[in-house]
């Protein structure tokens, strides 16, 4: 059966694929850029790209869609493609890139990639994400690590607390904080945020093999296992650690709660660090970054821009310029310093990156060597849109009800089977 995106594109008769390397000299490079980077730090990061683009003669048409994790943007993108008018460049990720490429909606950047030597500067891991059938169809901007705890050191000090290294320690610390009248966990009750917390617990309690068996192989015995029940038990505990107003809260507002000491910790990817940095906070002093307990695991998320099929020479020139700039060494540094992530490109000097970023770089390397590196399910690296949606539905329903862990694993198995 064809996926939703395949059907969309097949029925809308889009322009045939284009070779983005060949651009006419007279074209005025133009790009409508669809993205969901609307928080303070995200806006700074995307502004750096816009300014670079404009300084190189490009005309930038900004198309932001608010909504963390990109679910609101995904709906806009589908309707734009359906109406035969896709934006030139779109911030999408992982399997979503593959699905749009499969549907024939993306331009071919391979010639440009050859000219620019992308094969030599991009780690194979990221090449796999942005290539489809051996052709470049997107360019990666960064690597975000998902499995982080952001903690307020003053809040921890109030209960003589140390950053947790196991989930038992996490619970013990959270209990102490709660007893002292401090909200242990800043959280925004939105499905993608619930899913973000959930996947860190899956990796932490089950390990990388379990994680991949559940999310990639969709192995039913794994999904219904006692370990998965323990994951849901932990999610139930987490539900008890959030404040009364968590429903619907945006992720960056949860980050502000930690900054202001209104909550002690947040479990969120390192785009949260961008917010601390934008507020002038110093890592190690004003806030702590500690991986969620997982015995050396690492959950990878990577943002990319995919170039959709466009017909005008201006748009094609805009796409080529944008793609070239994104992988530039200087841009990779500037952008990722704002964004909280680490560069997608190899060999970018690391001296300006803070201790959290350096830890991300070091841990990425060691997790990749030990086999503990996994792709994010909640951020579409390890799971397709349909599977991710099915998982998030159950995780969110469990979080917001008194569903038992036994029922949750059954529901998860059913939802995944239906989505396949
Ligand atoms: C994206 C980040 C973004 C975050 C919040 C993640 O899925 O990869 O770039 O900052 O969502 O919107």
From TrEMBL:
Signal peptide residues are: 1-27
Keywords, ordered alphabetically: Signal, Transport
Q: Name one GO cellular component term.
A: periplasmic space
Subcellular location per the Swiss-Prot or TrEMBL entry:
Periplasm
Report the InterPro entries cross-referenced here: Bact_solute-bd_prot1 (IPR050490), SBP (IPR006059)
SUPFAM superfamilies in UniProt: Periplasmic binding protein-like II (SSF53850)
Q: Which protein family is it in?
A: Belongs to the bacterial solute-binding protein 1 family.
Instruction: Report the protein's function.
Output: Part of a binding-protein-dependent transport system for a sugar.
- Protein name in UniProt: Probable sugar-binding periplasmic protein
Q: Which organism is it from?
A: Kiloniella spongiae
Lineage at the top is:
Bacteria, Pseudomonadati, Pseudomonadota, Alphaproteobacteria, Rhodospirillales
